[in-house]
Amino acid sequence: MNTFLKRLLIILAVVAVGLFLYSHFVEDIFSKRLSPKDTVKFELNDTKLEVLYNRPLKKGREIFGALVPYNQVWRTGANEATTFTTNKFLVVDGTTVPTGTYTLWTVPQDSIWKVFINTKQYPWGVDEQMRPMREPKYDLLEVDVPVINLDNTVEQFTIAFDNTTDNLKLTMAWDHTKIEVPMEISKEQPK
C-alpha cells in the first residue's frame, strides 16, 4: 500500500473516532432530536427577522402550569436558548430593539405572559440544575402580552411571524395557548 493511501486511511479513522466521541460525550448527532431545531424567517422589503428555536411536542402532557410551570422563567422552547435576530431597528412596546441577535425568554402565566428580549447569548437554555440561564441584568425589554385561548390543540411548540393585517406580530403557540408580541419596524433607522 502506498504512503498516500495509508495517510488517508489514518485521517479517516481519526475523523470517525472524533465523530463517535463527540456524539457520545457532547451531542448525539446520529439520533433524531426529541425537540427538533427550527428556524422561522420573516422578510419584507429589506427587513429580515429570524428566530432559531427547538420545538418540543405535547405528547399527551399537560403543558402550561405543569410541564412549563406558571410564574417561572421558561427558555421558550427546548435545548438551546431561543434566539431572535433583526437587521432593522424595531419598536416593541415603546422600546427600541437595535439590530442584532438576542435571546427570548418568557414567564407564562394563566392570563398573561411576560416576554423578555435579552442581549446576552447563552450556550444552552438551562444549567445543570435545570434552571433557566437568563440573567435579568441583560434584559433589553420586558413586555406583558395577553394569553389567547385556542379551541384546537397545537401539538408542537410553534413560533411564527404574522403580518396578515400589516401589524407585525411574533406569535408563540402550544397546546391551547397562544400569545402575540406586537412589533413594528422603527421609522428611524441608523444610516
Q: Helices and strands in order, then pairings?
A:
Blueprint: H1 3-25, E1 37-44, E2 47-54, E3 82-86, E4 90-92, E5 95-97, E6 100-108, E7 112-118, E8 139-146, E9 148-162, E10 169-182, E11 184-185
Antiparallel strand pairs: 1-2, 2-3, 3-6, 4-5, 4-11, 6-7, 7-8, 9-10
Task: Explain this structure.
It is a single chain. The protein has 1 helix and 11 strands; from the N terminus they run αβββββββββββ. It is mainly β. The strands form 3 sheets. Strands 1-2-3-6-7-8 form a 6-stranded antiparallel β-sheet, with no helix packed on it. It folds into 2 domains: 31 residues; 153 residues, no CATH class.
Low-confidence stretches: none
> What is the domain total for the residues?
2
How big is the Rg? 20 Å
Q: What integer is the average pLDDT?
A: 89
| Cα shape | globular
Strand order of the largest sheet: 1-2-3-6-7-8
Key descriptive features of the protein:
mainly beta; 2 domains; 191 residues; single chain; six-stranded antiparallel sheet; 12% helix; three-stranded antiparallel sheet
What's a quick, concise take on this entry?
This is DUF2911 family protein. The chain has one helix and eleven strands.
